[in-house]
Amino acid sequence: MKLDRNKYLESRSVKPWRVLMALVVVNVLLGIIVLFFPQGEIALFNEKQIKFVSYDELMGHKDSVTLVNIDSVLQNVVLTTDDDTAVQITQSPIKDTAVTKVDNTQKTDTTQQKLVSDSTQKPTPFVASGTALILPPNNPDALKSLKNGLLNESKNKVVRILHYGDSQLEGDRVTNYLRNKMQLAYGGYGPGILLLKEPAATARGNYLVSQSSNIIKKAIYVRKSPMEDKRYGLAGAAFTMTGTTSEFAGWELSNDSLATRVAKFSEGAHTPAFICIAKRNGGYYRTKIYNKATLLYSAQSPFELTVDRDTATDQYVVPASTFSSKHTWNVSGQKKLKLNFSNGNYPVIYGVALDGYKGVAVDNFAMRGSSGGGFSSMDRARYKQQLNEMNVCAVILQYGINVVPNVRADYGYYKNLLANQLRSIKAAKPGISIIVIGPSDMSKNQAGEMVTYENLPLIRDAMKEAAMETGCCFWDLYQAMGGKNSMPAWVNKGLGQKDYTHFTYKGARYVGELLYNAIQEQVATN
Asked: Which residues contact 447 (CB under 8 A, 6 or more apart)?
């Protein structure tokens, strides 16, 4: 039978009135849903949600988002532009520790006589503006270690503050400004502990750390990179090396009249491995000056370290240390410092510290993607030794933004996770001062406007509860920024990035000033 083409096409076409009726029915159904769920969302299983236009938006009653008055929030916050002028050194340099120097006949560093002193100054004035530091009721001495370190110990030796955080700290943001303020107030020089394979390494303004391609990073915050025996360093990271190495063959007496010992290594190929630290144009004046360099490491056997500086090259035989140790040597602020692992089995590296002789060091440990977990997975005995060996008086933890996208109605799990990390740190060094910083404001696009994630205050509260429960201090960065919908105001002012999550470098300086003031309000007035 032959089909009639016109009748066939007519039978397959949709009548206009049917399209109209379908649209009417769909809109009526949507209208009923909006009436029954005026908030614009339906909760499903596993805390999932279906979101749609709310009743107010549908009727045109939606109020525009009111942004925080950033000028009011920061009206009393004055940034420090730089610091003081250096003073010539008057004290004796330290001795190289725990090493045998291979060659004393090479050129000496003529700049060694131009090192800078760490003269303690009076704390710089501060304005008690913004949100205050909250002390735990169950631990009135929570800041005792920090106070003693800043007010007393810093006059004679280096005291350290470890600043852990997520990507908000990358490029030395926040920490860089806080470090400068602390060093202006209590003395100190240098950038502190520098790490290899740092996220956004080129964004750090003061120094650029590069390394050979055979160096591998393992960290508590990097998936599928566990370190055997949990042998992580202070930063929650460890750096191993791969390649062919020579073997330490023992010691023998040299032929000179001094009867000095000389390390012997097996002959054969040795794959080069190096760490290079180059000074950059950015950063504060004090970070560009340092009096000593310290290699944090562990090693199964002695190894040879060749150090290239601006004006000299020296070789050292660094002793074995199966647990963890440090090798410190005198070296003034170099344009470039290169550490070559030239003989023997490779050590495990935990970082390189560039410091003054005394004062304050503030270390920046940015952990991209981290929510603050992993500290409890570190070998506690090793962590304890390094905290004591590096004279750490305080720890600052700044996390939370990586938890925000995981929207939940309750964050008890996160409170428990964070509390466990805080207990682990306190167990490694009882009495250490710990400051927990809550999440900064973070925005999402809602009907074309950037608004605060509704769960962010819940995460803030969970972090505060964890801090109070474990006897730690808490600082509410969300509130210090201005609270709800403050990030868009910071972005509009050039203080926040266009992702409405991270601070710009200028914005990070304001955060550093607010944090410094909150700490100083407790340290300098009590």
From this structure: 53, 57, 62
Judged by DSSP in three states, 275 sits in strand
Q: Which of the four pLDDT bands, split at 50, 70 and 90, describes residue 485?
A: very high
Give 4-14 pLDDT, tens digit per residue. Answer: 666 655 665 66
Query: Do 214 and 275 form a contact (C-beta atoms < 8 A)?
Result: no
DSSP 8-state code for residue 211: E
Whether the CB-CB separation of 463 and 436 falls below 8 Å is answered with yes
Return the HEC string of 369-429.
CCCCCCHHHCCHHHHHHHHHHCCEEEEEEECCCCCCCCCCCCCHHHHHHHHHHHHHHHHHC
Nearest to 196 by CA among 177, 170, 215: 215
Q: What is the 3-state secondary structure (H, E, C) of 41-76?
A: EEECHHHCEEECCCHHHHCCCCCCCCCCCHHHHCCC
The residue-averaged pLDDT of 333-361 equals 95
Hey, what are 5's tokens? Answer: 């083409």
Q: Is 242 helix (H, G, I), strand (E, B) or coil?
A: coil
pLDDT at 158: 98
Q: Which residue has the higher pLDDT, 11 or 202?
A: 202
Paired sense of beta strands 303-308 and 237-241, if any:
unpaired
pLDDT tens-digit profile of 105-123? Answer: 333 333 333 444 444 455 5
